[in-house]
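Reminder to self: keep the SMILES exactly as supplied, no canonicalising. Ligand is pyridoxal-5'-phosphate.
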Amino acid sequence: MATKEFPLVPEKVPQVRTKYRTIATEIPVAASVPLLKKLRDMEPRSMGGQPPVVWHRGDGACISDPYGNRWLDFSSGVLVTACGHGRPEIVQAIRDMADQGLYHAYCFPSEVRLQLVEELSSWLPPPLARVFLLTTGSEACECAIKLAMTRGLALGGKKKTVFVTFDHAFHGRTMGVQLAGGIPALKTWLGDGDPRFVQVPYPDGFRQKDTRFEVFQAALAAKGVDPDDVCGVMSETYQGCNACLMPPEYAQDLRRWCDRHKAVLIFDEIQAAFGRTGKPFGFMHCGVVPDLAACGKGISGGMPLAAVLGTEELMNMYGPGEMTSTHSANPVCAAAALANLRVIRKERLVENAAALAPVLAEGARRIAAASRGKVGRADAVGLVAALQFTRPGSTEPQPEHAWEFVRRAVARGVMLFAPVGVGGCAVKINPPLVITEEALREGLAVLEEIAAEL
Ligand SMILES: Cc1ncc(COP(=O)(O)O)c(C=O)c1O
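Structure tokens returned for the bound complex:
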């Protein structure tokens, strides 16, 4: 779903000056327009979807432009900067590795790679036992699909390569994960797709009211899928478009179903892992452990690094040199990720997300109430919330309201990324995990005012 471009016409907006936010110019800033226009002229249009703010400097939960404006960051980029921006330990780790002269090592062993794998291993609940480092979330999800299909082939031949995902699921933008995703608008370029990729309804209680596991089985039966032909099932732990966790009973039934039919259970934890939901992994809310977890975003706090975490059996299916990547465990990224994970642990940021979860959930409820029906659904877990703007009384997306909400928030010093989700109707609120209660409340109060004015 394409979002609407934000206009590059400077607009007079009320001036703001608080501990966390400064808006001292028109928005967008007149002096920034040439830069913004040049980018729009030289890059694909797809890169022009975010609010027209030039990101220049980061400090903690705030981001500044070069023109004297400062925003309270409720985006974390795109759920990446778990420890906030400009985190000294991460900056130092990047500097130290650069000073060492090691900014690439392919798959040759390095000390920092071992340190990161050890750190990640210490987060893993059994039977997750092995760590494979990659670069992007899409790559990690693709790898998980490959492992499930490889195991399916080994167990049941070509028949056992049906791969199940969920409606509205987002797993990235490379070809395999677009096939696996549940957003039809993103797959038009794939023609008739690949019949091995099958979607079932996600039990969100909003678009899919019946959240019992029987719906999963009925949906497969309706599509003529023999459960024994399924090689894997993949789901985001909470869907990126709605911040709604898979219900625990559903997840537990799914776990049993996968075991019964020898299908690999995969959770896409690209958004959820390392504290975002108030637990180390999102699946810990559900009382299950998957066979594979794909991680990215908050794993590194900013540098491009991702990981597949998996069981001994699955992770060892390929032989030496058969499952690698040019930039696996890039030393600078690995050093940053190590520093990031150590800060998350030392500063108890998982616990901070859990402690602030009720504040965010209450804020999301108040925003929905203030919107007088424009927000049809507000979900929140840990430090992520999603406001879905829908036609009152229905689930039909109202992307114009979501877009205008983001535009006004940015003009008042609260940074949000452009709407996502079904029909572009969802506004996400996901500040860095280092945010304080004071800052969180300030930003939520601004968003509540905007909802009331829309
Ligand atoms: C749930 C989920 N999975 C996968 C991805 C893809 O990650 P990347 O953009 O790093 O390839 C994303 C990115 O937004 C995501 O939110």
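Points to follow up:
The chain has a mean pLDDT of 97.
Residues 89-346 form a domain with the Aspartate Aminotransferase; domain 2 fold (CATH 3.40.640.10).
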